[in-house]
Specification:
This protein is α+β, with helices and mostly antiparallel strands. Helix content is 53%, strand content 10%. It binds adenosine-5'-triphosphate and magnesium ion.
Length: 474
């Protein structure tokens, strides 16, 4: 598809929407779209959601302009099936709402309409945004505080973040409108912000995180003017509400390219605001290996269309810090389990200062962490209770990655794999083999103790108890 895009932008097959006004005044950049026909853009209509087309058609039949817009068009141009479809229209949110039975107005800063169509399709319908007549309301750093003005399609295109995200597709006549040479940038795999980069980042610093996500996800290169101001502006993320930062971080981690996103974040020094504990974790080779393995597994799941729990992802990123604190609390004399609870709380508290991890997700993370020593111990009755725990699967996946990366002995992982998949009899025999081994260990420990007391005897090989399960040192 990219080769094809290179070809079409090279031939500049598209044509401007209309001629300049009489009097010869040419419209400014971004005022007139280049329009591509179906045989030029070659979007595969089979990749377009039928329900999205229905939403657009209903709006158009009511006399409004309506287009599929944003990431969906970008993905269609790249030959990929979009994960969601956004619609842009010149109908006001209230006019949109009246056209659909299941439509809900949401948002305060800029009202949008959520339209439900079919069994579980949800579409975001936005009214073209415009440039306010009065100067935009911004805070001291230039951040837009209100942008609730409607406008023309050209104005709407100029308000979008990147050229490749400012493409409009009309499924009815299959035309594609390109206001900012997005097709050209798709062809050259370039991520280019629309307008003055510094001003656009100041208006909304989250755009710096979006740059990172799209660069990692699409494998695109940042245009130099787009990347230049990021280093000096990354502190602006401090002004973003922690809940929005959390949403954006989750999008980065769930992009299917989590590790490249983290690497890009670090390249631009943006990660400190999101995951201040990450640097410490990634500078430790063992911890880095654990995170990389877990994120690669997550990417795989996402790319296979399977679900991933946000709690699992954040539990992975913060685990090494939890372990460090866990040891520290034990060194202060705390028993292992209360020490782990205290460590989990301390890490969550520190992380939540910058990133508002939702309470439900924080609870999931804590459960995954607290299940680790229980999974390691595998004591008789409790294994069946663990199996019924709603977080068993996530905690078990977490444990397997720990085994795989050498954080924990491989035998524990193998035992759990067999136990999770086993029949009732197999489970019983696995438990029996475990208690037999425990009994053997205890006998050999006693023997070793006796031998220690008599200096003439040789040395045995000690088997360590499960990590974290040792009694406090004082
Ligand atoms: P994804 O594949 O992650 O959904 P997307 O480009 O569709 O990517 P959305 O967050 O769904 O991203 O946003 C839809 C569109 O809205 C974008 O393509 C872009 O045109 C516009 N947009 C979103 N966020 C911003 C922003 N912070 N500043 C300017 N435009 C934005
Ligand atoms: Mg989208």
């Amino acid at each position: 598809m990219i080769d094809f895009l290179r070809k079409i932008f090279g031939l500049s097959s598209g044509k401007p929407a209309s001629k300049p006004e009489k009097g010869g005044v040419s419209p400014g950049p971004g005022q007139m779209p280049v329009i591509l026909q179906a045989d030029e853009h070659r979007i595969d209509p089979r990749l377009v959601s039928k329900n999205a087309v229905r939403v657009v058609t209903i709006l158009q039949q009511a006399g409004y302009a309506a287009f599929i817009v944003g990431g969906a068009v970008r993905d269609l141009m790249l030959g990929e099936k979009p994960k969601d479809f956004d619609v842009a229209t010149d109908a006001t949110p209230e006019q949109v709402r009246r056209l659909f039975r299941r439509a809900f107005l949401i948002g305060r800063r800029f009202q949008i309409v959520h339209v439900r169509m079919g069994r579980d399709d949800l579409f975001e319908v936005t009214t073209f945004r415009g440039n306010s007549q009065k100067p935009a309301e911004v805070d001291d750093s230039g951040r837009l505080l209100s942008d609730n003005t409607f406008g023309t399609q050209a104005e709407d295109a100029a308000r979008r973040d990147f050229t490749i995200n400012a493409l409009y597709y009309n499924p009815t006549d299959q035309t594609l409108l390109d206001y900012h040479q997005g097709i050209h940038d798709l062809g050259t795999k370039t991520l280019r912000i629309i307008g003055d980069a510094e001003q656009r980042y100041r208006e909304d610093p989250v755009r710096m995180l979006r740059v990172v996500r799209f660069a990692a996800k699409l494998g695109f290169t940042l245009d130099s003017a787009t990347s230049a101001p990021i280093h000096q502006l990354c502190h602006l993320l401090d002004n973003i509400p922690p809940a929005r930062l959390f949403d954006e971080t989750l999008k980065l981690l769930m992009s299917g390219h989590a590790m490249s996103c983290l690497n890009e974040l670090r390249t631009y020094d943006l990660h400190g605001r999101l995951l201040p504990l990450l640097d410490e974790a990634l500078s430790n080779p063992k911890a880095a290996c654990f995170i990389e393995t877990a994120l690669a597994r997550t990417d795989q799941r996402i790319n296979d269309g399977r679900t991933v729990s946000p709690g699992f992802l954040f539990a992975v990123l913060l685990w090494k810090e939890v372990e460090t604190q866990w040891e520290a609390f034990q060194a202060k004399g705390e028993y292992p389990i209360p020490a782990l609870v205290a460590a989990a709380n301390a890490v969550l508290d520190r992380q939540t200062e910058t990133l508002a991890i939702q309470r439900r997700i924080a609870a999931d993370m804590k459960d995954i962490w607290l299940l680790q020593p229980r999974l390691e111990r595998r004591s008789g009755k409790s294994v069946f209770r663990i199996l019924e725990n709603p977080h068993f699967r996530a905690a078990y996946d977490f444990l397997l990655i720990r085994c795989e990366t050498g954080d924990l002995d491989a035998e524990t992982g193998e035992w759990w794999k067999a136990f999770a998949a086993g029949s009732a009899e197999e489970r019983q025999s696995l438990l029996e083999s475990l208690s037999k081994r425990a009994a053997d260990n205890s006998r050999s420990r006693k023997r070793r103790r006796r031998r220690k007391r008599s200096p003439s005897s040789g040395e045995g090989t000690a088997e360590a108890p499960a990590p974290g399960m040792t009694a406090p040192s004082n």
